[in-house]
Amino acid sequence: MKKYHFKSAFIALLSVLATAIPNPIFAQSLSEKIEALIQPEIKDKNGPGGVFMVAKKGEIIYQNAFGKANIELEVNLTTDYVFQVGSMTKQFTAVSILMLQEQGKLNTNDLLSKYVPDFPAGDKITIHHLLTHTSGIKDFTKMKSIKDIAQKEMTPKMMVDFFKNEPVDFSPGQKFDYNNSGYVILGYIIELVSGETYEDFIENHIFNKIDMTQSGYATDRQIISRRAYGYHKKESGYVNKTVINYSVPFASGAIMSSLKDMLKWQIALNNNTLLNKENTKKLFQPYSLNNGETINYGYGWHLRKINDSMSREHGGSIFGYKSMGVYLPNEDIYVVGFTNCDCISPTQLVQNIAKLVLESGKQ
């Protein structure tokens, strides 16, 4: 009888251990699951690739790099490389506008005509319309003549003059239509109101304040430590990115940064370091059209859901680079991905990683 009881207890113990200790053959760590999502998208180890990071409650729980930072020199990417972030720049522009509002230097209800008196219909378009992509102004990136200025040094006024006389797409506040022109104008307003260049304003009041040492206004001339070079993919293979003058995308898409710095940015937003709580809230609330319909965009962020969780998102695309960032405020999860080939989109990938991290936290 004693032998029987011992055997039964031993079998029960094995059962408990089998449940408590995951079998390494069948169980995958979170990192392995994340990389199982990434690797099918970045298959070429000798081509350009990307870097990805997941942070929870401000702490990095995953980061890795795939592919080359420079194909010619056969240099591997690491997670501390600097990338063009494209339209993620709009986050910095929106925060800058609200910083100036907090200082009493402007108001989001101000009319565009207050700052650009000769802008057609400027007495109907507000800063709010520009921030929410509801102005109806023609997006300069959709104009055929963009190729004529793409490599020219443009002042903000020259950029505004480039598109201001184009026919509007709709009346202000009538609908949401993603628009780079609006954010170029916002950058121009930042310069007019602050007395600083947009580049200096971002540097002095954001990057320096929160120690974003790897971030700045883009340049192809200046030496940038640990810069990931950008590529396109053609039928014949990879080619170096098309050269543009970054004064053209300006405040709509000319920032470069790193994973580490973007985490500092997110933490600063969470801690109301740059804006007070009231103005920070304005960044992330959905706004309405003239007819009362709600749009899923705040000031510089798309407002969506992943599963049932609220999500603040924005991506970017500029010659040679793509970017995507997703923040889940209720769970304090931040996921960012940068790629140095515009043939590799991190958008769906970053969303899927965020979904995976969410689901893993509920198991």
Automatic annotation (TrEMBL):
Swiss-Prot/TrEMBL keywords: Signal
Name of this protein: Beta-lactamase family protein
The UniProt record lists the keyword Signal: yes
Signal is among the record's keywords: yes
Gene3D superfamilies: DD-peptidase/beta-lactamase superfamily (3.40.710.10)
Segment forming the signal sequence: 1-27
UniProt lineage: Bacteria, Pseudomonadati, Bacteroidota, Flavobacteriia, Flavobacteriales
InterPro entries on file: AmpC-like, Beta-lactam-related, Beta-lactam/transpept-like
PANTHER family the UniProt entry points to: BETA-LACTAMASE-RELATED DOMAIN-CONTAINING PROTEIN, D-ALANYL-D-ALANINE-CARBOXYPEPTIDASE/ENDOPEPTIDASE AMPH
Pfam families: Beta-lactamase
